[in-house]
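Q: I have 381 residues here and want to know how they pack in 3D. Can you give me a structure?
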Amino acid sequence: MKAMTYRGPYKLRVEEKPDPVIEHPNDAIVRVELAAICGSDLHLYHGMMPDTRIGHTFGHEFIGTVEEIGPSVQNLAVGDRVLVPFNVYCGSCFFCARGLYSNCHNVNPNATAVGGIYGYSHTTGGYDGGQAELVRVPLADVGPSVIPDDIHPEDALLLTDAFSTGYFGAQLADIEEGDTAVVFGAGPVGLAAARSCWLMGAGRVIVVDHLDYRLRKAEEFAFAETINFGKVGDIVRELKYATGGLGADVAVEAVGAEADGHVLQHVTSAKLKLQGGSPVALNWAIDSVRKGGTVSVMGAFGPIFSAVKFGDAVNKGLTIRTNQAPVKRQWPRLFEHIRAGHISPRDMITHRFPLDDIAEAYHVFSSKLDDIIKPIVVPAP
């Protein structure tokens, strides 16, 4: 099969790899119909995440058709079209029993923190991802679901991570009716979080970014007010001014490891790898919410030290809530929101690339060319 393979930072190629096979009775083999490139894939592409091995196939957002199932699979049949959550999880451990699918204890040798994730380095289990023609889906009775007939395939694709994660970020913010919410980052997760804040009852939503085309998308897609932090002197002061001097009620950090805005922080994290990620947007979130407010952290960070302003969070009495999204928990509500016309996740998609051109897709996405928001990958039929 053809598959994207990692050859080192900023180096990808499409190669022939052996077709995946059934390794466990509860495995399935899925032929990929659509995949997507996530902003967190760029952290791998840029060499930000440890133990990203040569030859690994990225891609934790994909849908496809079941080609083969193991002998113990009962909930899927060959020919089913499925959406697959980015979480690999067992469904029965201490954490899965409590709905914390992203913290499954049985699918990742490094599971003191995160569980398993498709295509996201060996720190998350080493599972090959879906930027390929075929992918092995372990624990197939637990994760994948058949795509409902009335859900568009591209909407289903974006529910495998980006929109579900943004929705989860808005959930974690514990928004009360009429609250002012600030979302840092106007990438796909930030856009989804901003749109979802309205569904949670927010009375005002502000999105912060430094790229005008992404801010325009936030206005069109998420109906949000926007601030370009590159065009104001002090973004925290600007947000305090915009909220009557108190600060926002809640903030959602949807940027993560490569946040711009502070040269030293960016260099020490993104270039020198001395931090698990640039904490610029997270520190802005801590500083810009009111005392007693809530900060929801959705951005992806590495496991090592980051210079987060935790003392300020303590002294302000903030609640900080974060996790990798337990994606499948969000699907029933998101299906209903799509059916009711409240959301259309596929409206975030701006670019479609054939699998053979995936190196170009990563370059365009990484360099923020051609007003790109969300690229998807289409394997050849």
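Q: Anything worth noting?
A: Residues 67 and 78 are 5 Å apart (CA to CA). Confidence is low (pLDDT under 50) at residues 261-277.
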